[in-house]
Design brief:
The complex is a heterodimer of chains A (142) and B (95). With 142 residues, chain A is of the alpha/beta class. Helix content of chain A is 23%, strand content 44%. Chain A has a single domain, classed as Cytidine Deaminase, domain 2. The radius of gyration of chain A is 14 Å and the shape is globular. The chains are: A alpha/beta (142), B alpha+beta (95).
C-alpha cells in the first residue's frame, strides 16, 4: 500500500505546521482507496483543542470535529482516510501516546518540524492487533 | 430498532456498513448486540471490559458520559454514533 499525496497538499501541511510551531498542529485527510493505495484529495486544518500549555507535545480534536468531517466527506463522495499532525523538534515517528489513541485502517501522517522548518514527513498505519505502527510508502506527486 | 453509526476506519469490520441496526434497552446492551454481530470491532472499542477512553458514544447530539454512561436508556428509534477522539503527540519532553 502506498499513500499518494499531491505536492500542493504537502506544502499546505508543512506551511500549517511551521505556523503552529512550537506547538503541534493537525487536521483531517480526505480521500479514497483505489487498487490498494490511498489517494489524498484534500486536507482540512483543525484547531488543536488540547490545553494550551501542553500543545508543545500534544494535539487533539473534538468528537464534533470528527462527526462534521465524516458527514462532509460522505457529501463529497470521499472518505475520512486519515489525519495528520506535527512533532515539533522531534522525529516524524509515532509515539506511544499516538499508538494508544490510534485506529487501524487510518492513515497517520506525521511531520517533523525543527526550528520552525518542516524537515520530514512520514506515513504510518496501525497494525490490526494495535501493537505497533508500520511505515508506509509516501508518494508525493506534482 | 435503534441504529448506530460506525466510524469510517472501523467499517472494515462491519462489512463496510456505516449504519448498523441494533437492539437493546441501554447503551451497554446496544454495544453488546453490536459486538455479537461484528466481534472484530471489540479490540478497537474496548480495553479490559471498558470503552477505550478515546472512544465516544453519542446518543443524538449528547455524549453518553454526560447522560448515564453505558446505563443510558435507549428508545426503540434511537440514533447512536461511535466517534473517536483524535489525539496525538510526540514524546513528552521539551527539546
Amino acid at each position: 500500500m502506498a499513500i499518494i499525496l499531491p505536492k500542493t497538499l504537502q506544502t499546505s501541511i508543512f506551511t500549517q505546521m511551521e505556523n503552529t510551531y512550537p506547538n503541534e498542529g493537525g487536521g483531517f485527510l480526505l480521500g479514497e482507496q483505489k487498487d490498494g493505495d490511498v489517494f489524498i484529495r484534500d486536507v482540512i486544518q483543525v484547531e488543536n483543542v488540547f490545553e494550551s500549555e501542553e500543545q508543545y507535545h500534544r494535539y487533539a480534536m473534538t468528537p464534533q470535529n470528527w462527526a462534521n468531517m465524516e458527514d462532509k466527506a460522505d457529501e463529497l463522495g470521499l472518505s475520512l482516510v486519515g489525519y495528520y499532525h506535527s512533532h515539533p523538534d522531534s522525529p516524524a515517528v509515532p509515539s506511544e501516546y499516538d499508538r494508544v489513541h490510534a485506529l487501524p485502517n487510518f492513515v497517520y501522517i506525521i511531520s517533523s518540524v525543527v526550528n520552525k522548518q518542516a524537515v520530514d514527513m512520514r506515513v504510518w498505519l496501525l497494525q490490526d492487533d494495535r501493537e505497533a505502527f508500520n511505515a508506509k510508502e509516501l508518494v508525493v506527486e506534482d | 430498532m435503534a441504529v448506530i453509526k460506525i466510524p469510517t476506519p472501523l467499517r472494515v469490520y462491519t462489512d463496510n456498513q456505516a449504519d448498523i441496526t441494533v437492539s437493546g434497552a441501554t447503551v451497554a446492551q446496544i454495544l453488546e448486540d453490536l459486538l455479537v454481530q461484528y466481534p472484530d470491532l471489540k479490540p478497537h472499542l474496548f480495553q479490559e471490559g471498558k470503552l477505550r477512553n478515546f472512544v465516544n458514544v453519542f446518543l443524538g447530539d449528547e455524549d453518553i458520559r454526560f447522560l448515564s454512561g453505558v446505563d443510558t436508556p435507549i428508545s426503540d428509534d434511537a440514533k447512536l454514533r461511535i466517534i473517536p477522539s483524535i489525539a496525538g503527540g510526540r514524546v513528552a519532553h521539551r527539546a
